[in-house]
């Protein structure tokens, strides 16, 4: 099992989860974070820290697309181990529907 960053992270990119991760398995894209499933130790401390409720265990149904996206982009995006400010529009986009179309494959800046 691993944890997966899902659609609601897009355009929010809260980083409270990064701060508590004991193995630094978060990677930063331009407008969302991902978890490297090979590095995640399944501790679950990140899940309750996400204000957008965007982190889910991979055992939940329907997350295959997001697990694949996390695995792919965690290989090329920079590692993020320190908390940063959320995106300026985070409150506006938190809970918005159909955010997958807003996903950017561009990397973030990392640490």
TrEMBL record:
Q: Which InterPro entries match?
A: 4Fe4S_Fe-S-bd (IPR017896), 4Fe4S_Fe_S_CS (IPR017900), 7Fe_ferredoxin (IPR000813), Fd_C (IPR022569), FdxA (IPR054829), RnfB_subfamily (IPR050294)
The cofactors it requires, by name, are: [4Fe-4S] cluster; [3Fe-4S] cluster
Q: Which UniProt keywords apply?
A: 3Fe-4S, 4Fe-4S, Electron transport, Iron, Iron-sulfur, Metal-binding, Repeat, Transport
Instruction: Please provide, alphabetically and separated by semicolons, the GO molecular function terms listed in this UniProt record.
Output: 3 iron, 4 sulfur cluster binding; 4 iron, 4 sulfur cluster binding; electron transfer activity; metal ion binding
| Pfam family of the protein (one) | DUF3470
Family annotation (SUPFAM superfamilies): 4Fe-4S ferredoxins
User: Ranges for the 4Fe-4S ferredoxin-type domain?
Assistant: 1-30, 31-60
| Task performed by this protein | Ferredoxins are iron-sulfur proteins that transfer electrons in a wide variety of metabolic reactions.
Query: Know the name of this protein?
Result: Ferredoxin
Species of origin: Rhodopseudomonas faecalis
